[in-house]
Amino acid sequence: MPVRLWTLHPRYLDARGLVACWREALLARQVLAGNTKGYRRHPQLQRFSRTDDPVLAIDTYLAGLLDEARRRSYRFDASRIGTPGLSVASLPVTTGQLEFEKKHLLGKLEKRSPGFIPLLEKTVPLQPHPLFTVEEGEIERWEKLPGTP
Questions:
Q1: Whole-prediction pTM value?
Q2: DSSP of 46-109
Q3: Rounded CA gap, 29 and 18, in Å?
Q4: Per-residue DSSP letter, 142
Q5: Which of 26, 44, 92, 147 is the most buried (most CB within 10 A)?
Q6: Residue 136: CB partners within 8 Å, gap ≥ 6?
Q7: What are phi and psi of 125, to 5 degrees?
Q8: Tens of pLDDT along 59-115?
């Protein structure tokens, strides 16, 4: 199962993308908490694993998704996550990573939710998920590029 924990702000995700990201982040939480044997080495989890408290970091990520879900009047179950703390420092994300994700998401939106395309195309600079702070750079090393094993 490919896991996609978007570093783009959740406002850019269509309903299907937001729900999928929520579910995948909940799975990531279980992995980071040591409650499952699978996906422990998944590249998308590296940025959370490198923090002092990976579970708190993923809870903070989930809280950002929950905020967007509430803004849209979706009913995500907040009891599935811990209480994110203010002590989690923001995580870095590169401009190259955001651009890569933008292109990847545009491909998905073309097929399933074309109405979201203008929001993603017109926002400059792209906003990251609230957990992340943007810095100049190429695509992140952990990113699985198309055509790579």
A1: 0.90
A2: HHHHTSS-HHHHHHHHHHHHHHHHHHTT----GGGS----TTPPPEEEEHHHHHHHHHHHHHHH
A3: 16
A4: T
A5: 44
A6: 94, 95
A7: -75, 160
A8: 999 999 999 999 999 999 999 987 765 556 789 999 999 999 999 999 999 999 999
| H/E run at residue 91 | strand 91-94
With a CB cutoff of 8 Å and minimum separation 6, the contacts of 128 are 7, 8, 9, 93, 98, 134
How many H helices and E strands in the chain? Answer: 5, 2
From residue 108, give the alpha-carbon distance in Å to each of 13, 49, 100, 102, 103.
10, 28, 13, 10, 9
DSSP state, 117? H
Contact 62, 85 (CB under 8 A): no
